[in-house]
Amino acid sequence: MQALEQTLGRRLPAWLGQTRPKLAKSILKVAGIDRVQTFLSDHAELPPFAFVDQALRFLDCRYQVDQLERERVPEQGPVVIVANHPLGALDALALIHFIGQIRRDLKVLANDWLLQLQPLAPILLPVPVLGPGSSRGGWREAKAALGRGEAVLVFPAGEVSRLGVTGVRDRRWSPGFLRLAAGAQAPVLPVHIGGRHSLGFYGLSLLAKPLGTILLPRQLSRTSQTRLPLRVGRLESPPAASADRHSLRRDAARLRRVVYALPRSRRETGLAAIAPPTEGRALIRAIGACQLLGHTPDGKEIRLGKADLDSPLMAEVGRMREIAFRAVGEGSGKSRDLDRYDPHYQQLLLWDPAQLELVGAYRLGPCAELLDAGGIRQLYSASLFDLEPQL
Question: Hey, where are the domains in the chain?
Fold first, then answer.
């Protein structure tokens, strides 16, 4: 609490003089920070994504996202994710939770007020917004993260949306995120977050921008039982590395319009979204139960196993199979590529113990056993070729 008082005291206007410390304490009390501080104390030791999950439960906040749009989030490689910022900490938590299910390497450019959420510190890159201070460090770290092939989340407005003549909207977007994308040649993923605070919050922000940010904890408690709609746009190609300042500003304004147009866009139909990754511990146990046949020169494990369709092992095999076949223009169109043959076949697996991921799979069928169990119809190849029974 004292650290928050000191941070706020420094951010209040200098003309308030020696009254700033007392005023900061009073404002924090009105803001309802005590309840938030109690939660933070109780969950201070959690890792970032576990903390986010508990925070959303604490605030009774859920988000809704179309499963077909979910697969627009690339599972690997550098990407800059940009979004509007209508609710401050709340929409940041929701988006971190959503993206974090797909990208555990996520980093977030966030203002130093959010850095008071200490459990999030490992994934937050600081960008001061309430007062003087250099933001170069955060941008340098974001550039390095993209260089490592990680995902970086940016709120280009730099602060919570404000009330204006066109309604509740972000202020003009800074083109800094495009410089990041251009430098790393990383695609840009636009996301729209629905929701808004009370008119009183936006009114205070018009009088003094820091007041709106300071009162966010009070707004969070009022925004409980929230269901935030998320819309995910299509990946945008990175700008040219040689793009000048004028073209970057123009593209930033265009992407801002793209984000605000997403709620009005039609949802796609057709291919089902790829299923989410199988829960890690369950998959590791399933892999461990498979027979270890050997190792590849680069340390990957070769294993052999067999499992039911509803098992964690087959869930991940089917998911990765669908990803692989879609990449070459094929696939089942379902969230997982599984069929009636899978429970009867053995699975030859290539497992990466360092990355804890399945990197290859091929099914094997002992023909004699399969024929004894169900005749020629038990062979997958019989669905592709006209096999003679005597074979």
Answer: 46-264, 280-383
